[in-house]
């Protein structure tokens, strides 16, 4: 059996995380190495490896996650705006092979990203 990713271990509560939201479909927790005053990771509980592996049937799940991110931004008081990032694959800078969305806010973001 393939080794669990660190995020699967967080879902399974094998390692701790600062969880800010959870429901039957997804989990949101603070990044261990925050790149902004607010840096939350939102992940599906379904083990999708990356953006590239999102399937046709995952549409409702992805819409659900986008709604969760939108609502978390309000809850976390990101009233001046925020950035949502999904790194995909090596060139995208993905380091954990479990689909995740970064919600970053609390400071102005620069462009282009590095
Ligand atoms: P990626 O580079 O794959 O887009 O993002 C992975 C993110 O997961 C990174 O921002 C990294 O800091 C975060 N991360 C890695 N391991 C852990 C962990 O054990 N706990 C938490 N909360 N975040 C982690």
**Which secondary-structure class do the elements indicate?**
alpha+beta
What Rg, in angstroms, do the CA atoms define? 14 Å
CATH-level-2 architecture? 2-Layer Sandwich
Termini separation comes to 35 Å
Task: Provide the list of bound ligands, each named once.
Answer: guanosine-5'-monophosphate
| Global outline | globular
Compute the average pLDDT.
Answer: 97
- Kindly report the spatial arrangement of strands forming the biggest sheet: 1-2-3-5-4
Count of DSSP strands: 5
Number of helices: 3
Uncertain segments of ≥5 residues (pLDDT<50)?
Answer: none
How large is the share of residues in beta strands?
A: 15-25%
- Major sheet description: 5 strands, antiparallel
* Elements, N to C (H/E): HEEEHEHE
Q: How many discrete structural domains?
A: 1
Determine and state the CATH class. Answer: Alpha Beta
């Amino acid at each position: 059996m393939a080794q669990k990713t660190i995020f699967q271990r967080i879902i399974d509560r094998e390692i701790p995380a600062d969880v800010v939201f959870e429901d039957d479909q997804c989990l949101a927790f603070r990044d261990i190495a925050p790149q902004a005053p607010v840096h939350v990771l939102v992940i599906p509980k379904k083990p999708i490896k990356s953006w590239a592996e999102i399937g046709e049937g995952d549409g409702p799940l992805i819409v659900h996650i986008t709604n969760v991110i939108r609502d978390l931004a309000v809850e976390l008081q990101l009233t001046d705006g925020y950035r949502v990032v999904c790194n995909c694959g090596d060139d995208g800078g993905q380091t954990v092979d479990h689909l995740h969305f970064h919600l970053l806010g609390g400071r102005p973001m620069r462009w282009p990203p590095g």
